[in-house]
Specification:
Layout: H1 5-35, H2 40-60, H3 66-95, H4 99-118, H5 124-133, H6 141-160, H7 165-184, H8 186-199, H9 207-229, H10 233-257
Helix pairs in contact: 1-6, 1-7, 1-8, 1-9, 2-3, 2-4, 2-7, 2-8, 3-4, 3-7, 6-7, 7-8, 8-9, 8-10, 9-10
């Protein structure tokens, strides 16, 4: 298996980005599954995308430096994600078993409003595709230095605040997701949160470690598959995440049932 050195310089930061993002996504995804609010990540990610899209349409086309445009887009996405998460957190005590329906409705609202805002933008289709499918191969070492500490901070704080996770979950989730969306796109954000959590759901312990291994394997296989098959990297990583997660889930089920091994 030979990879061109120039291409390796592109694949390496993309893989490292996936590894760093997984540090925050794996434990947050396990918590999402435990709470039974599966659509939360999609809703918050879509609101982050809505903020980025609104900035692009209403402000980015005006004369501004690329650095300011990137910062403004991320700031708007962060503001929308935090607003969505805080609102859902406030409504959680009143929604009861309708919470998942409320979260799904919030996702549809944000997605539909995004399409309406982009309707008259000549580059709307391309912008929407980049936000949904992501542009992970565009990640640079500079991006890792800028965004990486955010995911390390969220991961560390989640580990430290074990006794206060109930109150900190929504805000940490909202803090991580906009940065994830800007780096890897909405689809891969959802996939990297939920699939490792689903694959390890029947494990009694070491869920986080196993989920992280699934993420690393999926990012590596997806990026290599994208390189050798000349296909978009984001969707390839999503497919790889599905395959790896299914294999792990089936192996865990087989070992637990037939071998009576308690993970």
């Amino acid at each position: 298996m030979i990879i061109d050195p120039d291409m390796l310089g592109i694949l390496a930061p993309a893989f490292i980005a996936g590894a760093i993002i997984a540090l925050a996504h794996v434990p947050l995804g396990i918590e999402v599954l435990r709470r039974g609010i599966i659509f939360l990540d999609l809703a918050v990610a879509q609101f982050a995308a809505l903020g980025m899209i609104a900035f692009h349409v209403f402000f980015e086309n005006h004369a501004m430096s690329p650095e300011f445009a990137a910062a403004g887009s991320l700031f708007c996405g962060l503001g929308m994600a935090v607003s969505c998460a805080l609102l859902l957190h406030i409504l959680e005590k009143y929604a009861g078993h309708f919470q998942e329906a409320l979260i799904g409705s919030a996702f549809i609202f944000a997605a539909s409003l995004s399409i309406l805002i982009m309707a008259n933008d000549p580059h709307g289709g391309e912008q929407m595709k980049d936000i949904l499918a992501g542009q992970i191969l565009w990640i640079t070492w500079h991006d890792l230095l800028v965004y990486g500490p955010v995911f390390l901070f969220v991961s560390a704080l989640w580990s430290i605040l074990q006794a206060h996770r109930s109150g900190s979950f929504y805000i940490l989730f909202a803090l991580a997701i906009p940065f994830s969306v800007s780096l890897i796109g909405v689809y891969l954000v959802f996939t990297s949160l939920i699939l490792p959590a689903l694959a390890t759901a029947k494990m009694a312990r070491n869920k986080g470690l196993a989920g992280y291994g699934i993420s690393l394997a999926a990012f590596a296989l997806g990026l290599l598959g994208s390189y050798y098959l000349d296909t978009p990297s984001g969707p390839m990583i999503v497919m790889a995440m599905f395959v790896v997660s299914c294999v792990v889930f089936l192996c865990v089920r087989y070992l637990c049932i037939s071998r009576r091994i308690d993970f």
